[in-house]
Structures are given as structure tokens and as C-alpha cells.
Write a structure and sequence with these properties.
Length: 279
């Protein structure tokens, strides 16, 4: 009887060991990478990291400034020579193909507004792409500058409408007063636009020159440096004197970037896993 119990115990142990071996075999077959080499961190990070992409809007802003200066110079010259001086009225009429000088200036200003509108669309598109690549701080710093040129020219157009609508009344009181006011408006508009575009160009050129990493990587480096030097400095969270809307916006931008980064990381991880499985 004891011998029978011993034999039954040995059979039970053998069955358990066989089941374990079968489970291990099935687990190995289900996951062919269990005995394979692990995916190296360098291979994964090198596939995720992208080369820094410079913003091409700096030269666009410079070109817009040149066009703006040329158009304003031509408009002021036409207004002075053809209207204010009045000695070359016939020549101006022939040169403009019978078009009124003030109308020509207004058409030029309208064309300039269209150019500024296209520039604003281009800048917004490029900065949105930079935002998706993780440059959230640069996007927030230049967010107001993106729209300022269009706002300046739109305000200038509104001022021109206010001046030109009662031009007949103004010219009765002071000869060519509407033309003088028109020149003042386009000159002030030029000055404000040049200042804004110059400031924007400096920001973009500095950004392209520094070629920084995404904000998340920069924060990781700064935290590592702070930990090594025993300096605790962080900008995360809400504190007195800070704007709650700004904190929420920063968190939303960071979450959106991390979601895109994790998606790319998962896709690359699956690609590398399939490559090792086939190997």
C-alpha cells in the first residue's frame, strides 16, 4: 500500500512538471521574443528623435518688411507728387491709366493687407507644427507676435475708412486734409509693423540658432542638473501670483505632446518587435 502511494505521488509530480513544461513551451511560442535580445534604448530613441527643423518664417518676415517699405514709399511719393504738389497731375493720370491717385494708394494698401493676411496664416501654420513637435514655450512666447501685424494693418484700414468717408468735408475745411491724414496713417502703420516684425524675426532667428530640444527634454536635463547640484527648482503646479488659465494651458499642451510622443513610441516599438520576431 505505501508503495502504491509513492508511485501515485511520483506520477502526480511528473504530470505537474509536464504541465509546467507545456505552459512554458506555449508561453515561448506565444511570445517569440522571450529568449531574444531586448530592444536597446538607443535604437528606440534614435528612431523617435527627429532632427531639429528650423522655422522658415524669418526670411518671410524680412521679405514682408521690404515689400511694406517699398509700397509705403511709392504711396507717399504718389500722394505728394500727384496730389499735394499738383504740378504733375496730368503725368500721374497718364502713368496710372486714368486711375485716381488716392484710389491707387487705397488699392496698394488693400494688396498689402492681403499679403499680411497670408503671412499670418503661414506663421500660424508653422508655429502650430512647432507646437506639435514639443516647443510649447516658444509657441507661447511668440503667440501674440503672430497676430500683431494683421491687427496693426486691420486697425490701419479702419482708420483709413474713418478718414476717407468724410473726405469731402475734411477737404473743405483744410485743403487735402484727408490725404495728409492718409499719409500719417500709413506711416504710423509702417513704423508699428516694422517694430513688430523685427521683434518676431529676432525671436525666430534665436530659436533657429539655438536648435533646442523639445521642452520635455529640456526640463529633464534641468531637473537632472538641479538634482546634481542640490538645487530644487521647478515650475510645475499652481502657486500664488500665477495664472490658473496659463497653468491649465501648459498642462494641456504638454499632455497633447506626450500623447503624440507615446503614439510614435508605441508604433516604433511594435515595428522593432516584429523585426526581431522575423529574425
Amino acid at each position: 500500500m505505501p508503495n502504491k502511494c509513492v508511485m501515485d505521488s511520483k506520477r502526480l509530480s511528473a504530470n505537474v512538471q509536464s504541465n509546467r513544461n507545456t505552459d512554458l513551451t506555449q508561453s515561448t511560442e506565444d511570445d517569440p521574443l522571450i529568449d531574444g535580445p531586448l530592444i536597446s534604448k538607443d535604437a528606440l530613441e534614435s528612431s523617435i528623435k527627429r532632427e531639429f527643423q528650423k522655422l522658415p518664417t524669418a526670411w518671410t518676415a524680412g521679405l514682408l518688411m521690404v515689400v511694406h517699405v517699398v509700397l509705403v514709399g511709392l504711396c507717399v511719393t504718389l500722394a505728394v507728387v500727384c496730389v499735394l504738389v499738383g504740378n504733375h497731375a496730368e503725368e500721374c493720370e497718364v502713368a496710372l491709366s486714368g486711375l485716381d491717385t488716392v484710389a491707387a494708394v487705397l488699392l496698394a494698401k488693400t494688396a498689402l493687407w492681403l499679403l499680411v493676411f497670408l503671412f499670418e496664416r503661414c506663421v500660424q501654420h508653422q508655429h502650430s507644427m512647432a507646437r506639435r513637435r514639443g516647443y510649447l514655450r516658444f509657441y507661447r512666447v511668440t503667440r501674440e507676435l503672430q497676430h500683431m501685424p494683421l491687427l496693426i494693418h486691420s486697425a490701419g484700414n479702419a482708420a483709413v475708412l474713418v478718414v476717407m468717408a468724410p473726405s469731402s468735408i475734411l477737404d473743405k475745411r483744410v485743403r487735402n486734409l484727408s490725404v495728409y491724414l492718409l499719409i500719417v496713417i500709413i506711416c504710423v502703420e509702417l513704423l508699428a509693423s516694422i517694430i513688430c516684425l523685427t521683434k518676431y524675426t529676432v525671436h525666430v532667428l534665436r530659436f533657429n540658432k539655438q536648435s533646442p530640444s523639445p521642452d520635455v527634454s529640456e526640463e529633464e536635463h534641468s531637473h537632472t542638473f538641479s538634482a546634481g547640484t542640490s538645487v530644487t527648482r521647478t515650475e510645475t503646479g499652481f502657486r500664488d501670483g500665477s495664472s490658473l488659465e496659463e497653468v491649465v494651458e501648459k498642462q494641456a499642451d504638454l499632455i497633447e505632446y506626450l500623447k503624440q510622443h507615446n503614439t510614435q513610441l508605441s508604433k516604433r516599438l511594435l515595428a522593432l518587435s516584429s523585426q526581431q520576431a522575423r529574425a
